[in-house]
């Protein structure tokens, strides 16, 4: 089979790799029908994730068909169409028993495309399949489902739930890329008074408006002043960091009100300064986190009911073997307008979320 193989910072290729085999009785092998590219994959290619060894197939999100299962797998069988979660869970360790699957001690957590071969291939081996794949209802398309492998549970759990968004809140989302837009869509479920989106790209800010942001601000034009004006000088109740650079994290801590929450979702490759000399007195809660995907069954039900705007985030589609081209389009999002890219399945005309 073929897969997209990491060969070191700045180097990857779609090439022949070994077919995956069952290694444990809890494994499943899935034929990949649709995958997407994550911002974390770009971090890997930049060298920000040194745990990823050269020779690893990238990717941690997929939809496909189960072709083989180990003898201990009980929840799926060959022929089932499934969502492959970005997080693998053994189900037995302390963290899994608490629903904190991202911290699994039993050989799970974020391993696909990180510590073992991932999903950007024609087939993928999924360890601990009972808790790591989800059978899909027929009403949920591949494009809808693949966005529930990572960005929607990440935005919902690490952003909205960790930030404790409540009715009547002012919520600021810094970064209107795919994660930020998913945070806007899921924050709306809690009826905040307003959502403010901050980004530097006009197309992404327009997409944020279409997904429910009542106000938008260019990150280069003192968005803190807009937030102050909207809240009578108080500051935001919740600020969600969805970029992953020091400047945006520090911006978030300046925009939050005393007693508020800063929920960091972005993947940081460089140190950020925590200004405790200013923040110690503000009673802030600052959270970080790797997604656990405990919310995936709930989100799947909501997508099936038409309650989440998943495919609105898909701006480009490619055949599975056009991986290098898709990565280039995704990496140049400022020029291409890319939000989420889906590879595999039927192709369709590209329509940007922010387009009129």
From TrEMBL:
Its cofactor is Zn(2+). CDD domains: FDH_like_ADH2 (cd08286). PROSITE patterns: ADH_ZINC. SMART domains: PKS_ER. Residues 8-343 form the Enoyl reductase (ER) domain. Keywords: Metal-binding, Oxidoreductase, Zinc. GO terms for molecular function: oxidoreductase activity; zinc ion binding. Gene3D superfamilies: Medium-chain alcohol dehydrogenases, catalytic domain, NAD(P)-binding Rossmann-like Domain. Belongs to the zinc-containing alcohol dehydrogenase family. This is Zinc-dependent alcohol dehydrogenase family protein.
């Amino acid at each position: 089979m073929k897969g997209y193989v990491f060969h070191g910072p700045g180097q990857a290729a779609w090439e022949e790799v070994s077919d995956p085999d069952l290694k444990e009785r809890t494994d499943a092998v899935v034929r990949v029908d649709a995958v997407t590219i994550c911002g974390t994959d770009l971090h890997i290619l930049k060298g920000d994730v040194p745990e990823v060894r050269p020779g690893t197939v990238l990717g941690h999100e997929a939809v496909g068909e189960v072709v083989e299962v180990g003898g201990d797998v009980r929840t799926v069988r060959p022929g089932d169409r499934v969502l492959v979660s970005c997080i693998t869970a053994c189900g037995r360790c302390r963290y899994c028993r608490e629903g904190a699957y991202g911290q699994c001690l039993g050989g799970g957590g974020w391993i696909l495309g990180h510590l073992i071969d991932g999903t950007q291939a024609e087939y993928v081996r999924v360890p601990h399949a009972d808790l790591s794949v989800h059978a899909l209802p027929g009403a949920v398309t591949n494009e809808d489902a693949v966005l529930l492998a990572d960005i929607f549970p990440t935005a919902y759990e690490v952003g909205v739930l960790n930030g404790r968004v409540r009715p009547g809140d002012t919520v600021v989302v810094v970064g209107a890329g795919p994660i930020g837009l998913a945070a806007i869509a899921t924050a709306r479920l809690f009826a905040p008074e307003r959502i403010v989106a901050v980004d530097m790209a006009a197309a992404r800010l327009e997409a944020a408006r279409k997904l429910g942001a009542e106000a938008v601000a260019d990150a280069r034009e003192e968005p803190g002043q807009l937030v102050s004006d909207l809240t009578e000088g108080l500051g935001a109740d919740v600020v969600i960091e969805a970029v992953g650079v020091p400047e945006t994290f520090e911006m978030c801590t300046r925009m939050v009100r005393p007693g508020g929450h800063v929920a960091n979702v972005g993947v940081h490759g460089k140190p950020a300064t925590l200004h405790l000399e200013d923040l110690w007195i503000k009673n802030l809660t600052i959270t970080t986190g790797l997604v656990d995907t405990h919310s995936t069954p709930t989100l799947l039900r909501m997508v099936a009911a038409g309650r989440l705007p998943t495919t609105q985030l898909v701006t480009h589609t490619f055949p599975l073997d056009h991986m290098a081209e898709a990565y280039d389009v995704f990496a140049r999002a400022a020029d291409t307008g890319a939000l989420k890219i889906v590879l595999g399945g039927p192709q369709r005309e590209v329509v940007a979320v922010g387009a009129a």
